[in-house]
Design goal:
It is a single chain. By secondary structure, the chain is mainly alpha-helical. It has one domain: MFS general substrate transporter like domains (Growth Hormone, Chain: A, Up-down Bundle), CATH 1.20.1250.20. The chain has 18 helices and 3 strands. A 3-stranded antiparallel β-sheet has the order 1-2-3, with no helix packed on it. The termini are far apart.
Length: about 425
């Protein structure tokens, strides 16, 4: 059987300057793309979460308060959040391959440069640079899923690549403390920043076969992408993911320091208690994605299936509230682990829901809206949590605020996300 010429299989989307070969959708090679998306997320979360693991060491070295540390931890999210919609537009217009690669390079350099920082101001600057670099990460991953996978697969595909951030988080929380003790926090950042650059070679080579430059017929403007927020479903996605990411990034930025400061864990206990929950979460993410796909394949309405999993996950995450109240250290750890598992039930279906509720040609843009909302939560959560802990002398109230936000997220997803988000005809 002779192969068709590549040009015969290419689809040129009206909003893009790239041509996509859709035949990958029916090729076993598509699972290599999942592996690359997983590996990319793993490295990016090592970059992103290095500061949270190093925070107890930096606090001691620079004499910082919890309030000042909260500002450092939130600095990443300032540009990251507001670059989400432009990044999604870039992905839709210029393609997954080059947009993702360019952002990965910028993020890696920024992570390495953290080791050269001499004070809070310079740390804030490199964290902001890291946020700019990683802005295209999730919009590009969502667009890749829409381009090269079937609808009935997107739950497990999303779950598989999301396990990269869970594994990356577990690796940096578990191994980071050991590495920090051996080489210090400055060399730690240089190492975790530069080593992941090896990822770029397989990424560029693989996607070079399935996506290439093309001449676009018409283009969607960035202003039109922002206007999508006027649609009820897009706004619901924005608000719902704000709630998810507020709690997710509270865990990401404060869990190691919380265990040391509030629960008086040793460094080794911190490494275990802040990494094992992410390993449990990895398994829950895979199970949630696979089970939701199972319901979709059996004919259940996809939008309702994804929404149900999302809302159940957010409800389970509410265990973060009693975790802040109980006296016993291990009970708190168990409750925090359950809460994280709830977020992992939610995660693959939140991204799959966005794809199911969005016209394909603007998946990158709406994924950018989703992550914009989430990372507004990422801006607020670390700083507000640190401020509340500084003022009250405890994290209990901060975890209660997270619970209230989760309730709002459930209402946003269930009652607002109902119709497909579409680019209105000009």
């Amino acid at each position: 059987m002779s192969e068709r010429p590549l040009d015969a299989t290419l689809e040129t989307h009206t909003t893009a300057r790239v041509a996509v070969d859709p035949s990958l959708k029916d090729s076993p090679q598509r699972w290599w793309l999942v592996a690359l998306l997983n590996l990319g997320l793993l490295f990016c979360y090592i970059h992103r979460s290095g500061l949270a693991v190093a925070a107890p060491f930096i606090i001691k070295d620079l004499g910082l308060s919890t309030a000042a540390t909260g500002v450092l931890l939130s600095a990443f999210f300032w540009p990251y959040a507001f670059m989400q919609m432009p990044a999604g537009w870039f992905v839709d217009r210029f393609g997954v391959r080059l947009t993702y690669a360019a952002g990965f390079v910028v993020g890696s350099i920024a992570a390495a440069a953290t080791g050269l920082a001499r004070g809070t101001g310079s740390i804030i600057l490199v964290r902001m640079m890291l946020g700019v670099g990683q802005a295209a990460l999730f919009p590009a991953s969502s667009r890749a899923t829409a381009n090269w996978f079937h609808d009935r697969e997107r739950g497990i595909v999303t779950a598989l690549y999301l396990t990269g951030n869970r594994l990356g988080q577990a690796m940096i929380n578990g191994g980071g403390a050991i590495l920090l003790a051996v080489i210090g926090w400055k060399m730690f950042f240089t190492t975790i920043g530069l080593v992941p650059l090896v990822f770029l070679l397989p990424w560029l080579l693989f996607l070079g076969k399935w996506e290439r430059p093309s001449i676009s017929r018409s283009e969607t403007s960035l202003a039109e992408c922002f206007a999508l927020l006027r649609q009820r479903s897009a706004l619901g996605i924005f608000l719902g993911f704000f709630a998810y990411d507020y709690v997710w990034f509270l865990f990401l930025t404060w869990l190691p320091a919380y265990l040391v400061i509030e629960r008086h864990c040793t460094t080794s206990e911190m490494a275990i208690f802040s990494s094992v929950p992410y390993l449990f979460g990895l398994l829950i993410t895979l199970a949630s994605g696979a089970l939701s796909d199972w319901f979709v394949r059996r004919g259940y309405d996809e939008l309702r299936v994804r929404k149900t999993f999302v809302c159940v996950g957010l409800a389970v995450a509410f265990f973060i509230v009693p975790a802040g109240i109980v006296e016993d250290k291990m009970t708190a750890v168990y409750l925090l682990t359950i809460s994280l598992c709830g977020l992992n039930v939610c995660a693959p279906n939140a991204w799959s829901l966005t794809q199911a509720a969005t016209e394909k040609k603007i998946v990158g843009a709406v994924a950018g809206i989703q992550n914009f909302g989430g990372n507004v939560g990422g801006i607020i959560a670390p700083a507000l949590t640190g401020y509340i802990a500084h003022v009250t002398g405890s994290f209990a109230l901060a975890l209660g605020v997270a619970g209230a936000i989760l309730i709002g997220g459930i209402f946003a997803y269930w009652f607002m996300v109902a119709k497909q988000v579409e680019m209105k005809a000009k």
